[in-house]
């Protein structure tokens, strides 16, 4: 018996089963290592599974967002809106005062157009007609502001404009007659009847 125990390592654990079942020898260090490995594999699996589920949710959200944008755009195209950059534009077909045109735009979830650069200016100039734009100095003479309250920084006035002829020209139009696409704005009386250009964000 002593010879038998002499051949067994101090870490060896004798696991005795039913007499009819084979006896198994397992070291305690081996069991602990195996358990740690299994735990690590399970943890890595759960982490990867969580990551994949998160990515799947994000992709599904992007798909739904794109579908909503498509529906939104199709609706506006059917209603006569034009798309440029990050905005939709509606060119009215009924002449109204500056304030009336503004209110029509607001009623459509938009406002009179705010021209923020040369590309947008060129886009606007691609349509024929005299159109109200969202620019005025109604609050303070000579202090031109857009409908959102921001001051005018980029200007495309016709030569000699704005001149506030007669002291009552407080609203801006995109003029019908101009020789330079970068000089097409004119100041006129706000009560005149003209077409209007509405603008709204394309992807709210």
UniProtKB/TrEMBL annotation:
Keywords: Lectin. It holds the Pfam family Lectin_C. InterPro entries: C-type_lectin-like, C-type_lectin/snaclec_domain, CD209-like_CTLD. One of its GO terms (molecular function) is carbohydrate binding. Residues 84-199 form the C-type lectin domain. This is C-type lectin domain-containing protein.
